[in-house]
Amino acid sequence: MALLKFLFITICILWLIKMIVRLLLPLLFQKMVNKAQQQVNNQYRQQRQSSRSSNRASEKISIDYIPPKDKEARAADKAGDFIDFEEIK
């Protein structure tokens, strides 16, 4: 009789644990996903703010002098497109 009582209590406890896990795990996963999403959004905002500040600094840059091209560089520009090929034997 004691064995049947032990088995019955064990089965009831395992069933209750299964039900509790079924209810709580989705809530825990949802909480974890929300937390991860919030961290990603915070990183995105910080990165966006830092890029805005660097863009402001880059707006102040101006080029005053552009050196003339060499004669060889001008000749290469006028020569046209070159195609690399391999000889097939």
Automatic annotation (TrEMBL):
Residues 40-56 have a biased composition (Low complexity). Residues 40-63 are annotated as: Disordered. The chain crosses the membrane at residues 6-29. It comes from the Bacteria. This is DUF4834 family protein. The keyword Membrane applies. Keywords: Membrane, Transmembrane, Transmembrane helix.
